[in-house]
Amino acid sequence: MLKNPPFSLVPENTKGKETNLEHSISLNSEAEAITKYQVARDRLFRPNCWHELAGSATAEFTLMSTEGIEKNNALELNEYIRIDIPGPGPAAGDHFDWVRISRIMENFVDGVDESAGIQLKPCKNPFDNTKGTAHFFDESASSTLIVQREGSNLFAFYHGRNEVPNNDDVSFGDKVRNSLVAVAAIAGLSEIQWKSLIKGILE
């Protein structure tokens, strides 16, 4: 169990909301857990499957290369994820929210057998960066997803940090939209999304 998030990947929360979620499963043997961990790691690194794992009422995620091409394979550092949240999207993101894959780490958690994690950061629309940050949280926020194995036990974690509405350097319409979505997320709606996803990644 990850009692304290590894700050090599999870930043300190200095403003706004902090979110910490966890899901775990126990397998019958370590060999079974090793196989299941590889499945979970593969799911973590393939955002295009996250909607299916989390459920029909959740956001849709599309991995985009740095050249703007949709990808179906594993994510890489500095690529982007285009997020289609139910309801209207921000004009700054051509009606999508955008995040950049800012960190990827493996076997970085002391005292566990295997670990893998990614950090996502809100960003401008990478293919039209003349506008402001295209996300309902501002660019100081982050989302970190981690999977790890301890013997025959698997864990998945979500850590949200510095979650505040993105109301700077965006249009009035986006300010209204971002405020409404961010308030709903801070109130707990985003936790439903992330709880469903980390459960789906493991199970």
Brief synopsis:
With 203 residues, this protein is an alpha+beta fold. Helices cover 25% and strands 30% of the residues.
Structural account:
The chain has helices at 30-44, 50-54, 172-202, and strands spanning 17-26, 60-64, 70-71, 80-84, 97-106, 114-122, 142-150, 153-163. By secondary structure, the protein is α+β, with helices and mostly antiparallel strands. The chain has one domain: Alpha-D-Glucose-1,6-Bisphosphate, Chain A, domain 4 (2-Layer Sandwich), CATH 3.30.530. Strands 1-8-7-6-5-4-2-3 form an 8-stranded antiparallel beta sheet. The two termini are 17 Å apart. The mean pLDDT is 90.
Question: What topology emerges from the helices and strands here?
Answer:
Elements: E1 17-26, H1 30-44, H2 50-54, E2 60-64, E3 70-71, E4 80-84, E5 97-106, E6 114-122, E7 142-150, E8 153-163, H3 172-202
Antiparallel strand pairs: 1-8, 2-3, 2-4, 4-5, 5-6, 6-7, 7-8
Classify the fold: give the CATH topology: Alpha-D-Glucose-1,6-Bisphosphate, Chain A, domain 4
> Strands across the major sheet, in which order?
1-8-7-6-5-4-2-3
Question: What string, H for helix and E for strand, traces the elements in order?
Answer: EHHEEEEEEEH
**Any idea of the CATH class?**
Alpha Beta
Q: Estimate nothing, just give the exact number of structural domains.
A: 1
Helix content: 25-40%
| Terminal residue distance | 17 Å
